Amino acid sequence: MEFTLLPNPAELGFPEINRVIAERNIFELIQLVLKYSQLALLLLIIFAGIQWMFSLGNAEKISNARATIVSAVVGYVIIVFALPVVSGIASFFQK
Predict the structure, then answer these.
(1) Please, what is the angle between helix 59-94 and helix 15-53, to 10°?
(2) Which of 77, 78, 75 is nearest to 44 (CA)?
(3) Strands (E), the chain
(4) pTM beyond 0.85
(5) In whole angstroms, what is the distance from residue 58 CA to residue 51 CA?
(6) For position 10, what pLDDT does the model report?
(7) Is 19 in contact with 84 (CB distance < 8 Å)?
(8) What does DSSP assign to residue 9?
(9) Is residue 80 part of a domain?
(10) Which of 34, 55, 65, 72 stands 20 to 30 A from 40 (CA)?
(11) Per-block average pLDDT, block size 10, for the chain (95 residues)?
(12) Is 10 a domain residue?
């Protein structure tokens, strides 16, 4: 059994296919980053919540837990607002 490579679509007269494939890969990468950042946000909030529960009223531990939650949410918001910018820049350079 012999395997042959498929020809490049651009060589067959379909140059738009390469651009579409690249845009699709960027979109999938952005979705992947969002999924992992959501997972990180969830884990950090759970971790901070556990810290808060086991602080036993210690003001310093409560402050650290609250700071962890705020930092996680701020980091997630930055990622959410940065991804469309990155997508726009990537699509600009692919034209």
Answers:
(1) 180
(2) 75
(3) none
(4) no
(5) 11
(6) 58
(7) no
(8) G
(9) yes
(10) 55
(11) 59 60 72 88 95 94 95 92 81 68
(12) no
